Amino acid sequence: MSEYIHMNHGDDSRREEVMELLNKSFGFKDEDEIFENLIPKLYNEEYCPASNNVVLDVDGEMRAAVGLYYNSLTVCGEKLKTGGIGNVAVHPDYRKNGYMRYCMAYCLDEMKQNMTDLAFLCGARQRYAHFSFEPSGIRYKFNFNKDNVARKFGYDKKSAFEAKVIKKSDTEILKEISEIYESRSFKAERPLEKMYDILLSWRGKPYAVFLNDEFKGWFVFSSKMDKVYEIGYKNPEDIEDIVICALETSEKHSINIDVPPFDTDLSKYLGLYCEYYEVAHPDYYTVFCYENVIRAFMKLKSTYGKLPDGECVMLIEGEKLPEQIKITVKSNSVSVEETTLKPDISLTHHEAMRLIGSLYSERRNELKPECAAWFPLPFYTYSQDNV
Fold it and tell me: What is the DSSP letter of 159?
């Protein structure tokens, strides 16, 4: 008897079924492990996690689910539609039947039809390369420790600031955080009513920072208090005290701090005074509309670095459709548009992803030097905006 396979988004009535499948697939049993506590912004009941999952049923039995969470990303005024892939789950009893491939293909097809510009996920590189994703973007990881503070200021140096755990009832603090976040040139959609659950993502521990009773900023720690997912600040001159306050709050000898390259005030301070830093990719990305994505992220890159003047025509056999685009930079102003001009370079989708977004590209040196200097682009996902 052949199996009847059906795929579609779940509905609210299937939330418990979806959550049971996800937790079982990932081996989450304890209360502090389960998805509901791992990422409350996605899995709390009010956020309808079942409807944000593509579920695969076989003869009426749920056997696989893949989360597809849409958001929007505003980059220097350019609005991009994004899709985050998460909780790729197959019931342990039914693995190696191709169910994950079916669900991922469904998600990719839906994103293409829904005019999604950019998608991202975390996972094993070769597994998700099959679905068009490549490691991309730029993330600085700074290591900052007590010796860095002592050798700059002396062993008696203490931050003038105080950190307090943020609670759901801290509505005024959450409002201030939202206002600072919304003022950024790079931001995902973070509705104020979801801000607290967003800050708790990935077992985050959010703290507000004060000088006396004046709000100065915030930081979000990992559950082990050894990694800072994000730092926000009202004024750049407060960065030093906020960073030292984070180190003191951790009660560790050293902490790691993730920073995007376009947060130049924070990266400048940490780059000068940290113990060491690493440059890596923040996530795996795939682009469905190269014209929109390249325009937005080249504009972002131009805000913190000088882009050389130049012109390049690319023919990209994209994951969605072929795109032939002309990229022009003049006096640090960026233009990206469709063209019928003869291409300077022709690229497959994976070659294009590595050229525009990856730290390593086997094709980038084929560009004119002034055009090669535009890349890689600073794709980024703050941990609290990840899925």
Answer: -
Measure the CA–CA gap between 358 and 378, rounded to whole angstroms. 9
pTM of the prediction?
Answer: 0.96
Q: Residue 174's domain spans which residues?
A: 139-280
pLDDT tens, 209-261?
999 999 999 999 999 999 999 999 999 999 999 999 999 999 999 999 999 99
pLDDT digit string (tens) for 31-56?
Answer: 888 999 999 999 999 999 999 999 99
Position 378 in a domain? no
Cβ contact 118:73 at 8 Å: yes
Cα–Cα dist 170/70, whole Å: 27
Burial class, 266, CB count within 10 angstroms (exposed 0-12 / middle 13-18 / buried 19+): buried
Domain-located, residue 241: yes
Partner residues linked to 280 by β-bridges: 139
CA atoms within a 13 Å half-sphere pointing along the CA-CB vector of 180: 19
